[in-house]
Specification:
With 216 residues, this protein is mainly α. It is built from ten helices and no strands.
Length: 216
């Protein structure tokens, strides 16, 4: 099994599959997560091949854009990796990463644990915070035609998984319902350190946002 060749084929597959994806969940999101995961992997004793495949395939068919179907992503990943004769143990590990990486409102219990998942999850969460996270959040809010902010609608910090999936709250609320929570949910020491700076940037942004909202 030529791992370098498989990674290259996976990159091509993901680029093609996500060619028309929403801007916050496109190839460039995958690219950033992949690069961050490889950096974080340097600080952990992990199987880099699994980390790279997990990062590259983690959003191959996000349920948000597939009618809420949480099975299509792992299924597509399995079909693709099987076509390259990747071993069953690796395929199963990648499936478990895809199945367990999502935030899901923060109340859904994670059913699988591995250092490889920790690394990919941290990398994915890193792309949800900081300057990139802010850009992605407003891009998705616009994609869903949501209000930017409504002072009369407070963030809901106690949503169930279904409420989180079906929420159409203003985009600013998403900062409190997810983005600002991620700093304290990082798995790796390197991820925690990187998240501090991006978290502080979001707080600074929100302070400026509210001042401008009041015309100051």
């Amino acid at each position: 099994m030529n791992k370098e060749h498989i990674i290259g084929r996976t990159v091509e597959f993901v680029k093609q599959t996500l060619a028309d994806a929403e801007g916050g969940h496109d190839w460039w999101h995958i690219y950033r997560v992949w690069k961050s995961a490889k950096e974080l992997a340097k600080t952990e004793k992990v199987d880099l091949f699994v980390v790279e495949l997990g990062a590259l395939l983690h959003d191959i068919a996000d349920s948000k854009f597939n009618g809420g179907d949480e099975e299509i992503g792992p299924r597509l990943a399995r079909e693709f990796l099987s076509s390259l004769s990747v071993d069953e143990q690796t395929i199963l590990h990648v499936e478990n990463i895809i199945n367990n990486i999502s935030f899901k409102g923060g109340k859904e219990a994670q059913k699988f644990k591995s250092l490889e998942l920790d690394v990919v999850q941290d990398a994915d969460r890193m792309d949800a915070i900081g300057a990139i996270g802010i850009a992605r959040t407003f891009n998705y809010g616009g994609h869903k035609n949501r209000e930017i902010y409504n002072p009369g609608i407070s963030p809901n910090l106690n949503m169930s998984k279904e409420e989180y999936k079906n929420s159409d709250a203003p985009t600013i609320n998403h900062f409190y319902e997810k983005l600002l929570l991620l700093k304290d949910r990082m798995n790796t020491n390197a991820g925690k350190a990187m998240a501090e700076k991006r978290h502080a940037f979001m707080q600074e942004y929100l302070n400026q946002f509210y001042q401008e909202w009041e015309g100051k």
